[in-house]
Amino acid sequence: MLRKNTYIFALGLLLLPAITSAKPLSLVDGCAELINIYSSKNEKHLLAAQTTSLSESLRAGYCLGVIEQYAKSEYHCRSDWFKRAEFIAKYVLEENPPSESKLLRLSCEI
Predict the structure, then answer these.
(1) Which of 5, 9, 51, 82 has its CB surrounded by the most CB atoms within 10 Å?
(2) pLDDT at residue number 14
(3) What is the pTM of this model?
(4) Does residue 81 have a pLDDT over 70?
């Protein structure tokens, strides 16, 4: 039993750098990914599903989910999700973009 626990502990130590180096999801990065996948609100890029990686899809889905959920929680936010994603994605190259809550609030005003 001690040997099994030692292996589990060693495995945990090996995986620790991979776990701690994971980058948290960013709304700005996710929206940039979403804009890259869709050329317009209704038109998909040719073969978008085949050329989009799992991580790109995850980031794009995070953006879309956050935007839609915020719109549901804020009665005054009825802007088009694509325009809001474009607005947020503009901050991708900025070193210190506004907070996610501020970006969501500002995107509702467009």
Answers:
(1) 82
(2) 54
(3) 0.71
(4) yes
Q: How many CA atoms lie within 13 A of 47 on its CB side?
A: 2
Distances (CA, A) of 8 to 2, 5, 21: 10, 5, 20
DSSP structure string for the chain: -HHHHHHHHHHHHHHHHHHHTPPPP-HHHHHHHHHHHBSSSS-BPTTHHHH--HHHHHHHHHHHHHHHHHHHH-TT----HHHHHHHHHGGGG-SSPPPHHHHHHHHHT-
Q: What's the rounded Cα separation, in Å, for the pair 54 and 37?
A: 12
The answer for residues whose C-beta is within 8 angstroms of residue 68's C-beta and 6 or more apart is 81
